[in-house]
Specification:
about 850 residues, 6-stranded mixed β-sheet, single chain, 5-stranded mixed β-sheet
Length: about 850
């Protein structure tokens, strides 16, 4: 009986024990494994990677962090150094390739070391467990250090091992693990600590990174280099122990000094970086960006060129501050630079301001993209339009332009009288000299010849589309009356450099996802010719002609390089904007100097403000590049012309020069400015040949239009009209000269407005007449009232503006007593409407 009772007891006890185990198992399952995530990895929704922006050589410029987390750039395992893979395995999971996702021995060993207070040489969790924790568990559960979380990640780790190759799991670990410094994944960590791609790391650097995940804050080399060095030694020791490296390799790596990047979060070329980032976000949809798991954007920027431009800006602005301008300063706070390849449009450098962080000078504004008035920097394109061989009567570099005072009417009816920068008139000048020396009056006359609508169409073809409505402009556009972006204007100069093809600036070469797949690759657009290549070459030849620009600039100025280069400056009224743009066959650089706030600078022009930046940037970027001349295209010939008229020289022409002409534009007419006449020695009057040498002198005089005669007299130049009495043909000695006078100012049908904000006494109109020397007295009249009388030139006075319609004229008297009167000139004066 006792035995039977004992058996029954044992049976019930065993059943009870099994029940307890069953209940415990059910409770344990409910406690540990309820809502256990699937071990299937959704690769499409892994944490988003960051956007890495590099220069053309893949040097990191900027890493744009995702909205959540930190730096994160995933790479395929093949691009991660083997040394880093091995260091990670030796440190975190020595049996990685053998275990089923968990390592019981490793867990017990880590627990014993931790309990005994020793140093943690290896983690208690396998690499697979850490992947399961990082990717499959929620952020809240990840931070839980309970037994429950350990059990759950262990089950998931074993499931992962069944589903995925070890290589995939290791790749996930290396790309998702946190390495400190806001860096997720080994690529981000490599850039954060060493400032270079992970594939360039050596053994010592790989060991340092592999030791960080255990305690990123404790082993941070920036805050505690000693702890980081000791941790690296532990990793190297584990690598030797597992047979990955030799003792010699370990010793060499341990001796290597830790060299960290000085800018763990670099933002080189900030304006360019942000501009590129905005373009990427326009080119790719949010879904594409998310699915890429990190983007690498390779740009066109040449970091060497960028540094050269930035340094040139800093040095020039510093020099302007030190020079002082008589103690009051030049008030120059901003500058911008754009450097392009004229053949491709690739942007090599973009400086938007001298200091992106400087709020006082509005440094965050990208002045390379901000529209500003270009001053004289537009002139080359106005002349290029005039030289267009498809025009009915194309101008040439030899075309004579009268650089004397002209009066024009603006689109709103106001009088417009352009002046040269030096406030001087230079008389008849060839287009070559007018452009090279940046003379204002000839530029306005050239735009008048071309017409504003024609120039707008040409500018649009060049890529300048910021002007707006052409009906809102007048001839002042020739001197920079519109607004243009430095980027667009630099590209337009690129069309001159490349032989007449439109330049489309671009910044992005390609975009790749985290696996190296190309999402975008730049394709060169179809070449679009916007200018005859011969015209482009002639304009280039003018802009590189140092002798032709000596009238406006000193010889051997900062506009000259150590190689052939074409260049043009520009300065707006009141010194608000200052430009220099120039190019070689290989490079075009545009520079703007001024203030982002639109404050005026003080006495800073193209030669003293922007040109030094252009000069230094060009020289530095082109250093080591062989000099190349601009290749002259076919269809251009050199012909000797009379320097002043640009026509074929006669025996009377004293000054001649060689000039380039497009085929079909070589002048056919003979010079008509220099005329040789016979003058009676006794009377000083022109006589008709034949005339003996005893009776007559043979003299050569200029035959200029009436509008240029006052300039000639101011410069003591004797004209044919001085002897011919205003006639351009020789007169008989016994005939009385027919005197000629004309009213130079005001211009007919001009409207003037009285500014209510200015004193009326300061608002006066210049009234001026020109007359032949035969005139002995001259008077100026307004509405029947004489306002001034003269007995010699200049015949000039000022009249107080008065509202209403008025009529001006001039009257003169010759030595013989004959009266001469000009035609009446009507004008209108309006009152400024009150606001």
């Amino acid at each position: 009986m006792k035995y039977k009772g004992w058996v029954i007891f044992r049976r019930w006890a065993w059943l009870f024990f099994i029940g307890i185990i069953a209940l415990f198992s059910i409770w344990l399952y409910e406690w540990a494994f309820t809502d256990l995530p699937s071990a299937k990895i959704d690769f499409a929704h892994l944490p988003s990677g960051s956007m890495r922006i590099t220069d053309r050589t893949r040097q990191l410029l900027y890493e744009s962090l995702p909205a959540e987390g930190g730096r994160h750039s995933a790479l395929p395992l093949a691009k991660i150094p083997l040394a880093l893979q091995q260091a990670t395995i030796a440190t975190e999971d020595a049996t990685f390739y053998q275990n089923n996702g968990i390592d019981l021995a490793g867990i017990l060993r880590a627990a014993w070391i931790n309990l005994s207070g020793g140093q943690t040489l290896a983690g208690g969790s396998t690499i697979t467990q850490q992947v399961a924790r990082t990717i499959l568990l929620s952020p809240t559960e990840r931070a839980d250090r309970s037994l429950r979380r350990k059990l759950r990640e262990s089950i998931l780790a074993m499931e992962l091992t069944k589903k995925y190759p070890k290589e995939t799991i290791l790749e996930l670990y290396l790309n998702q693990t946190y390495y400190g410094g806001m860096a997720y994944g080994v690529e981000a960590a490599s850039q954060t600590y060493f400032g270079k791609p992970v594939e360039q790391l050596d053994l010592a650097e790989c060991a340092l990174l592999a030791g960080l995940p255990q305690s990123p804050a404790r082993y941070d080399p920036y805050s505690d280099v000693q702890s980081a060095t000791e941790r690296r030694a532990v990793v190297l020791s584990l690598m030797q122990k597992t047979g990955y490296i030799t003792s010699e390799q370990r010793d060499q790596a341990e001796r290597e000094a830790i060299s960290l990047t000085t800018t763990p979060y670099p933002m080189s070329a900030p304006h360019f970086d942000l501009w590129v980032r905005a373009q990427v976000e326009q080119m790719l949809s949010p879904q594409q960006i998310e699915q890429a798991h990190g983007l690498t954007v390779q740009t066109t920027l040449d970091y060497h060129a960028q540094q050269a431009a930035e340094q040139a800006v800093q040095q020039q602005l510093q020099q302007l501050k030190q020079k002082g301008n008589q103690g009051i300063g030049y008030n120059v706070n901003n500058a911008a630079v754009v450097a392009l390849q004229p053949q491709t449009g690739a942007i090599l450098a973009m400086v938007g301001s001298p200091n992106f962080e400087d709020q006082a000078s509005h440094g965050s504004i990208n002045m390379a993209l901000a529209p500003r008035q270009p001053g004289s920097a537009l002139k080359p394109f106005i002349y290029a339009a005039a030289f267009d061989p498809t025009r009915a009567h194309p101008w040439t570099a030899a075309t004579m332009i009268l650089d004397v005072t002209h009066h024009f009417v603006t689109h709103d009816g106001k009088a417009y009288t352009p002046q040269n920068y030096d406030a001087q008139e230079h008389g008849p000048v060839p287009a070559r000299q007018a452009l090279a020396s940046s003379l204002n009056i000839p530029a306005v006359l050239t735009l008048q010849e071309v017409s504003i609508p024609t120039f707008f169409k040409f500018a649009s073809e060049l890529g300048i589309n910021s002007f707006g409505d052409p009906n809102q402009y007048d001839l002042s556009l020739a001197l920079g009356g519109g607004e243009v972006r430095l980027m667009d204007l630099t590209a337009a100069y690129g069309a001159l450099a490349n032989g007449g093809y439109r330049v489309n600036p671009y910044a992005i070469e390609e975009i790749r996802d985290s696996q190296g797949n190309i999402l975008y690759q730049h394709t060169a657009p179809t070449a679009h010719r916007v200018m005859d290549e011969r015209v482009a070459w002639v304009i280039t030849d003018i802009l590189s002609d140092d002798s032709a620009r000596q009238l406006g600039f000193s010889a051997h100025s900062t506009l000259n390089l150590d190689r052939p280069a074409a260049v043009k400056t520009g300065t707006t009224t009141n010194f608000h904007d200052n430009w220099t743009l120039g190019y070689t066959p290989d490079l075009v650089v545009g520079v703007w100097v001024g203030n982002a706030s639109h404050e005026a600078m003080r006495e800073v022009n193209g030669l003293t403000g922007a040109a030094p930046i252009w000069h230094q940037t060009m020289r530095e970027i082109l250093s080591g590049t062989p000099a190349r001349a601009f290749q002259r295209p076919e269809g251009i010939t050199a012909t000797e012309v009379c320097s002043l008229s640009g026509l074929l020289p006669t025996s009377a022409c004293p000054y001649r020069r060689m000039e380039w002409f497009l085929t079909g534009t070589v002048p056919q007419a003979m010079d008509n400015l220099y005329q040789t006449i016979s003058v009676d020695k006794r009377t000083g009057k022109i006589v008709s040949p034949p005339c003996s040498a005893a009776q007559c002198d043979q003299i050569t005089l200029l035959n200029l239009p009436p509008i240029a005669q006052n300039w000639a007299h101011d410069h003591s130049i004797r004209l044919l009209s001085d002897l011919a009495g205003g006639s351009n043909a020789p007169l008989a000695s016994d005939s009385e000269p027919v005197a000629a006078i004309s009213l130079r100012s005001p211009s007919p049908q001009t409207s003037y407005i009285i500014n209510s904000g200015l004193p009326l006494s300061s608002q006066k109109l210049e009234v001026e007449a020109v007359a032949d020397p035969a005139i002995t007295s001259l008077s100026l009249w307004v509405d029947g009232e004489k306002i001034a009388s003269f007995h010699r030139a200049p015949y000039r006075t000022f009249w107080q503006l008065a509202p209403g319609k008025h009529t001006f004229w001039a009257e003169g008297v010759t030595a013989a007593g004959r009266g001469v009167r000009t035609l009446p000139v009507p004008i209108e004066v309006k009152s400024d409407p009150q606001p």
